[in-house]
TrEMBL record:
GO molecular function: DNA binding; transposase activity
Organism (species): Priestia megaterium (strain ATCC 12872 / QMB1551)
Biological-process GO terms, alphabetical: DNA transposition
Residue ranges of the TM segments: none
Name under which the protein is recorded: Putative transposase
Length: 91
């Protein structure tokens, strides 16, 4: 039997707005009571949508995780192609 999520779903624009309000100086407690989102969820969004700055630019942890996932997929595809090349080179 599948279990359905009981909570609300929010789009990324709403999440980023809440994070921007947090960075503008609003407390998590105030944002939680005003928008009806739990404090834990807001802290999770702040962690996910706060950019990590470097000399080359900035990425959010979510963007970084997406890049790492794509990189792993590409490495796996490359390994498969290398193995196929060895097989076809023998024939």
């Amino acid at each position: 039997m599948e279990r359905k999520r009981a909570g609300k779903t929010y789009n990324d624009e709403f999440k980023k707005t809440i994070v921007d309000l947090y960075h503008a100086g609003n407390s998590v407690k105030d944002l939680s009571s005003e928008y009806g989102v739990s404090e834990v969820t807001i802290y999770k969004w702040v962690k996910a949508f706060t950019p990590i700055s470097s000399e080359e630019g900035s990425l959010t942890p979510k963007e970084l995780a997406d890049i790492q996932k794509e990189n792993l997929r590409l490495k796996q595809e490359l390994d498969i192609l290398k193995k196929a090349m060895v097989i076809f080179a023998k024939k």
